[in-house]
Input
Amino acid sequence: MGYSYYDLEAMTGPLFPIVTMEEKIMKTIAKGALGALWTASALLACGGVTFAAQMAKFSYPVAKDSTMGRTVEHFSSLVEDKTGGDITVRNFSDAQLGNEIQSAQSAQGGTIEFTVTTTAALASNVPDFNLFNLPFTFSSYEQLDKVSRGPTSKKVLAKLQDSQLVGLCYWDYGFRNLTNNKHPVKNMADAAGLRVRTIQNGVYIDSMKAMGMNPQPLPFPETFTALETGALDAVEIANDVTRAASFYEVQKYLTETKHLTTLSVVLVSKQFWDSLSAENQEKIQAACDETSDFNRNIIVESGAETLQFLEDQGMEVSEISPEALAEFKTAVEPVVTQVHATIDPELTAAFTAEVEAAASN
Output
């Protein structure tokens, strides 16, 4: 099938390695170009001429017509509107400028300005992001929205600056569900032994094992063929991706487990960010926050339509009972405990309190 846009889930190793000589050269060139732009702007301003807008690149790994693609387009439009045209954003979908990891590295080096990266990938350098990767942490988008805008989430974002990145806000791909081609899954007994494709992230892998499955961290572009040939039985992924990647052609059963959410962070090159006026920084931050509303709204609004589409394609949809859900949650408790042990206890306690408060409101 050749799907490149979710290669983000195929990556391993640290997200931000040592910058290579080639990257240093690219960064120097970028600085020189930006300096020339500022000089030209100043000269033209002295002559009473208005200089053209500053151009920024936004790289993202999915299709333009996907939920995330629509989110990026909305953000870019807001940035241009709020800055009065001072900054325009050119979007590059489908991993044109590199997959998720490569784009984050390019932003780190200053050769692109914006990208969006999952917390699963960011956890390789900032383990605190694994708080968002724990199974069954969130039960609704409203709860997720409140927590991702809360003080603990912002503290975790701030830690990215040590990697020459600025974390603006959180967007989401949607809750992850389980699809398979064997039989309906309504409890742990049904899930037992399924060879399931998952992300190359320790928390994801351990969670699938705890739930009784046999996790296979296969690169995303290889997943369709693996399902088609029977090398894999199942996939755990958002419904939007099941639709976009045509997994319904090789998967018969879908279970709304909502065991994880694919939360992502909007990253900005710190080099670019520091070049902006305080006023434009505030406007871009506001654009990101407002786009979070848009992102969550379209995920919720498109959810029922996407599910209906998958059913129309022949998928049999199941839900798990409260009793089965409790069984799954109990099974993954050791994974949660293990992750908590790697994170500052005060941060974990604050995060847990916010999750519980958001669930009760």
In short: Confidence is low (pLDDT under 50) at residues 1-13, 18-51. The domain at 7-360 is CATH 3.40.190.170 (D-Maltodextrin-Binding Protein; domain 2).
